What does this fold into?
Amino acid sequence: MHITSTMRRLGMAAITLVTTATAALGIATPPAAAAPVRDPILFVHGWQGGAWNWDYMWGRFLAAGYPAKELARFSYDSSQSNTDIALEVKAQVDALRAKTGAAKVDIITHSMGGLNSRWYLKNLDGLGFVDDWVSIGGPNHGTEVANGCADASCVEMRPGSAFLAELNSGDETPGLVNYGTWWSPCDEIINPDQSTILSGATNTQTLCPGHLTLLSSSTVFEGVRDFVK
It folds into this structure.
């Protein structure tokens, strides 16, 4: 009887040990990897544009799974200097980061939006807060069309302007930001067409959309979407 009782106690102890070890192993199992977090996106329009310029891309990014809170667009007075608009870009980036808790954002720009956002990157300490930057039909080296208007921003967009000389001096694509441009040989506003191209960026020539049509091109959207994801 004594031997049987002892064996029973040993057997129960063994079961307890196995159960405890199994539970411990279960706790030690690493949790499933969290889905990668995408950077929120700030859209910056161009000269005489507005937040509405992004209606098509906004809708496409929503359909691609981006929550509305991770997308931001705004309107600004495009007649002022790009150096002043850059301050607004900075405020928008700061607000989007605070809203989402993201360390960095992506910036997608059209036309002159590429200039003021680049000024923010280069001169307002934006390099540490932006992951991907996109210029769609941007006058990065000026456009002759700007010779016909006199706004402060237009003067800055003229080829050879002091603003562009400073913006493009040294490294055109500084820091660890991933730079991409999309340009069209049929762009009636950016002249010469290849003004958009930046040294050090991924530069993509589109088929033949016009300046505003670049914003409603499914091909451009798909390329930009894949670039920033």
Remarks:
- The chain has seven helices and six strands.
- Residues 138 and 226 are 19 Å apart (CA to CA).
